[in-house]
Design goal:
Layout lengths: L4 E7 L3 E8 L5 E8 L5 E2 L1 H11 L7 E8 L5 E3 L9 E2 L7 H11 L2 H8 L8 H11 L1 H6 L2 E3 L1 H9 L7 E2 L1 H4 L5 E2 L4 E2 L1 H8 L7 E2 L7 E2 L5 E2 L3 E2 H9 L5 E6 L3 E4 L14 E4 L5 E7 L3 H11 L3 H10 L8 E3 L16 E3 L8 H25 L8 E5 L6 H7 L7 E3 L5 H15 L13 E3 L5 H15 L1
């Protein structure tokens, strides 16, 4: 019997990746890549165009496909199935005031946490819809349907049928769907947009929802963090730290989360469980910006960082270069603390950039661990482009008080989407088991003084 192949897509902020794997073993077969414009709003047609060109010749013998994509983005369509305006992406913070207004109008953070498991911030779709209603009323009047990026791409692959389809994971980041009840809160949608519109049906995690126009079975897809967790095979006790354009810290939980402080987003995962998550806007871009300041390559930047002592001789970077989501400081700026003539060296600056980026995520992961999870994490799993840096790996071991596992470099969002496609194709109750081999493990070298200095710098700036 010939083997069956599945494809998974990662349509991210900056690029698209397509992987093809064996449905049973997960064996890597081939891949394709493309690039998206670096922006906070974009015509969704660019996603489709890049996916089409990057997957040319890749899908001819594929039995099933699934799309993982950036969460939260707002794609709005009219009666003619046409996009009304460019999609606003998760990293577009123009709706920060809209988030504040919506929180007040419902009765405060507690009300939102009870309703959807999260307190909305500028990233959430619901806040972008309020911004649209207030600032572009003519466009808002045309809207008859709202989708997320992965919903829209899936819809396009299937030939734009009358029904839109999504999954629990991505729906849980809209701000108008509850992981606790598995239902839309249409009252919250109406609160934001002023009217009810067509929303995607929330499919079962392992459901075949249709076919592409070329006859390939289509699975529901999911958000990027949910897909990455599925690709990693993350389980309870794992804290996953993802270092891409943004940074995320999350774990798999059997129970829903509703954090009124707004630090934790109470998301669902892609398997029927939950994915409490904290997201920072500033991750790998901090390293890129630091290397640009020093006019060195990324490899040279890593060497400089490793040549400095832990703690950067007292220099602390608060890495809020593009505002911040966790903590919710959309208008914040980055800042350096503790500079003296003796410690202001390229090496200390380089290390402070990496320490600041990782401290931000370590603080977020501590909140997740301490909020109703009940058990100490067994390990940190470090993924994303910046996780390949030896400096990042070594410094992470000083900031987390559990072993740091770095799995082999892979496109885990695309891999998770492919695993979901294989799961839907199999008809089984549980996802297929695909072994990950070749992880690097960094043993604990925890140094509380670095974390303490970071907290003190934060208190001085934002108390």
């Amino acid at each position: 019997m010939s083997r069956k192949l599945v494809a998974g897509v990662d349509s991210s902020t900056q690029s698209v990746k397509i992987v093809v794997r064996d449905a049973v073993t997960g064996e890597f077969i081939r891949e394709g890549r493309g690039t998206h414009p670096d922006a906070t709003e974009i015509s969704p047609s660019k996603w489709l165009s890049e996916l089409t060109s990057s997957s040319k010749g890749l899908l001819d013998d594929v039995a099933a496909i699934s799309i993982g994509a950036q969460q939260h983005g707002m794609v709005v369509v009219d009666d003619n199935k046409q996009v009304v305006r460019d999609a606003l992406l998760w990293n577009d913070t123009r709706s920060a005031d809209a988030a504040t207004d919506l929180i007040k109008e419902l009765g405060g953070p507690d009300k939102w946490a009870q309703a959807i498991g999260s307190v909305p911030v500028a990233s959430f779709t619901v806040t972008k819809l309020r911004w649209l209603a207030k600032n572009e009323p003519a466009n808002a009047a045309k809207v008859t349907g709202v989708m997320l990026p992965h919903d829209w791409l899936t819809w396009q692959l299937m030939g734009t049928p009358d029904e839109f389809v999504t999954d629990r994971g991505d729906a849980s980041g809209t701000g108008y769907w509850s992981p606790q009840t598995n239902e839309y809160r249409k009252d919250l949608l109406k609160l934001a947009l002023g009217k009810e519109v067509q929303l995607p049906r929330v499919a079962s995690p392992n459901e075949i929802i249709g076919q592409t126009t070329t006859g390939i079975a289509v699975a529901p897809g999911t958000g990027d963090n949910m897909a990455a967790a599925l690709g990693l095979g993350a389980t309870t006790g794992d804290i996953v730290i993802s270092l891409g354009t943004s940074g995320t810290a999350y774990t798999v939980s059997d129970n829903p989360t509703n954090d009124a402080s707004g630090v934790i987003a109470g998301f669902a995962d892609a398997t029927g469980k939950y994915l409490p998550l904290a997201c920072t806007l500033n991750a790998a871009r901090v390293i890129n910006a630091g290397a640009a300041v020093l006019n060195v390559s990324l490899d040279q930047f890593a060497e400089l960082a490793l040549s400095a002592k832990p703690g950067s001789e007292g220099i602390v970077l608060l890495p809020y270069l593009d505002g911040e989501r966790t903590p919710n400081l959309p208008n914040a700026k980055g800042s350096l603390h503790g500079l003296t003539r003796s410690n202001m060296t390229p090496a200390n600056f380089a290390r402070a950039c990496i320490e600041g980026m990782l401290c931000s995520l370590a603080e977020a992961s501590d909140v997740i661990t301490n909020f109703g999870q009940g058990t100490k994490p067994n390990r940190v799993v470090l993924i994303g482009g910046a996780a390949a840096s030896k400096a990042v790996q070594e410094i992470a071991a000083t900031l987390f008080n559990v072993p740091v596992h770095i799995p082999p470099a892979a496109e885990y969002v695309a891999d998770g989407a492919a695993r979901q496609a294989a799961w839907a194709l199999s008809g089984e109750l549980n996802p297929p088991i695909w072994d990950l081999k070749g992880s690097v493990v960094k043993q604990v070298n925890f140094q509380e003084s670095i974390r303490k200095a970071y907290r003190e710098a934060f208190q001085r700036s934002f108390a």
